[in-house]
Design a protein that fits this description.
By secondary structure, the chain is an alpha+beta fold. Among the domains are: 1-24 and 37-58 and 328-393, no CATH class; 399-656, Alpha/Beta hydrolase fold, catalytic domain (Rossmann fold). Helices cover 18% and strands 34% of the residues. The longest helix is centred in the C-terminal third of the chain and has 18 residues, at 639-656. The chain is globular and about 75 Å long. It starts with 45 loop residues before the first helix and ends with a helix.
Length: 660
């Protein structure tokens, strides 16, 4: 198969609204990268790392006629709609504030669904409610999709009509959480023509429709927490109870995390974790609730997601080794993905959307490449450049990362990633250890990261350890983090640092830690607990007081999740563990190293009170802190604010851990 060689815009002028298809014949000559005689790249502007596009969220319409992508523009979420053939901008949909925007999806070729958060106007109580909107491209109109008496979860879409005429929404009764299903038109008529197609069935809280839009499966809870499942084979049958599972039988409950309910079949799939920690996909009989043979597995890694076609039939799987990979079951699609990679210079690519093989979206990424999105039209063998993830970054100036298995002091192994600055050798470098957020079930990969590449560009080596509790390395490794916040999880970070020093990569006198969310906590705790190892630290949105965050989470998380999942994770098997022993709030008087703490004033995950209380206590104790407060949520949503954060971090590190 021959593909037109695709032109990749190097940098500059790559704003999404200017993107267009091009070929080598029409491309301008590429300018040489800014690299000096020692091999050191020129400094990339901070602003280049602070703004860009989220290309992985691009979506094709039903037939591939159009594509849409969400873009954060100074705190407002815009959904841009393009002609997928010409790549011309057609519409810009204002999705409201970024913090209030959940997701978007296509309904046919002419309508876009948007899920947004709204506040109640009820004088008796306050709540944030999910609401569904539809934008009609043909008449440029935005309207509400739902009932006037909709409950808090007003965006639970269980089926979208391929033609874009209607959606099926599952609504839960606010009093008892019993769900019913409504068919709602997308023509802007609101609830006037809504039709209830499934009444609530006692304790059923959620419904599942098959690929044809027939509601066939219901899951609920008894008053004592048991899982109740009802099922029917077709719309002509009544629902019957398949099983009732005691709430303590977690394995049996998890087996009902099912998918792949297709028209005319009682067979689907469910995930199962094997003894070696890998997640596999088994066949599943909805009539009996029994799992069958293993249908899909990877020999070394867990299956994270199954990629299905428009009928719900599995077409591929997503696994993550050192980076996410799409593995296709159809050898023709697998071969096509390989050929697309070759056409793009042999770099990693993933087909992230496929509209009936008429048109595909192809994402090119790498640890040293922010990535670019292409539109492929198979019938014409045409691969067209659409946009760069970071338009103002020349990827030729970035640094490639390497993977390492780092041993812990108690015999475990951490898959970790080391990125070295270019043109500065491989030894005695200033090091920034950068733990990920989460912390549980989350992991770092060899994917592009703004902070990593910015610091490498400024002359730092960056180490990203996947400490115990991280996801993707089996249940035992994740569970090993239970109850170990500030203790063995922190030991792992120290072990990774000591490894980098022992290998000769890092200068032991020039090591700092930086991170966000849980990584921000770990950075604060590092310079308090181990000032002999860490010279300084940078924290964004870090937890300062674990007792306070537990009280906050108890009020904001669901009761069941907090009690059965989150609290046991934090405490492990030691209910008597005193979090003040590992909380910066209680231990701030010990601080003897420079520390920058930054926080968003409107953070709802780690509340701003964590920040100002720590600053206030440090002031009373005469402990110096460098601080930054931004009008932001948990993650920076405004490009100018993100740039301020990056500037503060780089300036702080330059003063307290100079790279030269």
């Amino acid at each position: 198969m021959y593909l037109f060689k695709a032109f990749r815009r190097i940098c500059g002028g790559g704003a999404l609204y200017l993107a267009a298809a091009a070929s080598v014949a029409g491309a301008q000559a590429e300018a040489p990268p800014d690299i000096d005689a020692q091999g050191r790249p020129g400094k990339i502007a901070l602003s280049a790392f602070a703004q860009g596009l989220e290309l992985g969220g691009a979506r094709l319409s039903e037939t591939g006629k159009r594509l849409a992508i969400a873009e954060n523009v100074n705190g407002s979420q815009m959904v841009r709609v393009y002609d997928a053939d010409t790549l011309q901008l057609l519409k810009v949909i204002d999705g409201g504030k970024t913090g209030d925007f959940n997701w978007f999806a296509w309904a046919g070729d002419d309508r876009v669904l948007l899920s947004v958060m709204r506040e109640t106007d009820n004088a008796n109580y306050w709540a944030r409610m999910a609401r569904l909107l539809v934008f009609d491209i043909r008449n440029d109109s935005l309207s509400y999709v739902g009932l006037e008496r909709a409950s808090i979860d007003g965006d639970t879409v269980i089926h979208i009509d391929p033609a874009g005429d209607h959606v099926l929404l599952s609504y839960r009764n606010q009093a008892r959480f019993e769900a019913e299903v409504w068919r709602l038109p997308l023509d802007g008529s609101g609830s006037a023509n809504a039709e209830r197609i499934v009444d609530n069935e006692g304790d059923i809280r959620s419904w599942v429709a098959d690929s044809a839009g027939v509601v066939r499966l219901g899951l609920g809870r008894s008053r004592r927490g048991s899982l109740i499942v009802v099922y029917r084979a077709s719309a002509n049958e009544d629902f019957r109870r398949v099983t009732k599972i005691d709430r303590h039988d977690r394995d049996a409950m998890e087996a009902w995390d099912v998918f792949g309910l297709t028209e005319g079949s009682d067979l689907g799939y469910s995930f199962e974790e094997l003894e070696d920690g890998r997640s596999v996909v088994r066949e599943f009989d909805f009539r009996t609730g029994e799992q069958g043979e293993i249908a899909y597995e990877h020999s070394d890694w867990s299956i994270q997601r199954i990629l299905t076609d428009h009928t719900g039939v599995p077409g591929g799987m997503v696994i993550t080794d050192d980076r996410p990979r799409h593995i296709w079951f159809d050898p023709k699609i697998a071969a096509l993905q390989d050929e697309l990679a070759q056409a793009l210079g042999g770099r990693e690519v993933r087909i992230i959307a496929n509209a009936h093989n008429r048109r595909m979206l192809v994402l090119q990424t790498g640890a040293d490449d922010p990535g670019a999105l292409y539109v492929f039209t198979p019938a014409e063998q045409r691969l067209a450049f659409f946009a760069n993830l970071r338009p103002d970054i020349d990827f030729r100036l970035l640094s490639a990362g390497t993977a390492h298995d780092i041993p812990t002091r108690d015999g475990k192994s951490m898959r970790s990633y080391l990125t070295l600055p270019r043109g500065r050798g491989k030894s005695n470098l200033p090091l920034v250890v950068m733990p990920h957020g989460g912390p549980y079930g989350v992991r770092d990969t060899l994917e592009y990261d703004d902070w990593v590449q910015l610091l490498a560009n400024r002359g730092y080596a960056v180490l990203q350890p996947n400490f115990r509790g991280s996801g993707g390395f089996g249940a035992a490794f994740e569970k090993a983090g239970d109850g170990e916040i500030g203790r063995r999880m922190q030991d792992d970070l120290d072990d990774a640092t000591n490894w980098a020093v022992a290998q000769g990569y890092a200068d032991p006198a020039r090591v700092c830690m930086a991170g966000g969310s849980y990584g921000g906590y770990a950075a604060m705790w590092a310079v308090i607990r181990n000032p002999e190892i860490y010279r300084c630290a940078v924290s964004w949105a870090g937890v300062a007081d674990w007792d306070a965050i537990m009280a906050y989470d108890k009020d904001t998380l669901t009761r069941r999740y907090y009690k059965e999942t989150w609290k046991p994770k934090l405490l492990g098997n030691d209910n008597s563990f005193d979090f003040s022993d590992v909380s910066p709030m209680a231990q701030i008087g010990r601080l003897s190293r420079p520390l920058l703490i930054a926080h968003g004033r409107f953070d709802e995950r780690v509340p701003y009170s964590q920040h100002y209380r720590l600053v206030e206590k440090a002031g009373r104790l005469g402990v110096e802190l460098e601080t930054l407060v931004l009008d932001e949520m948990h993650s920076p949503g405004y490009a100018d604010n993100h740039e301020k954060l990056l500037d503060a971090m780089v300036s702080f590190l330059k003063r307290h851990n100079p790279p030269d």
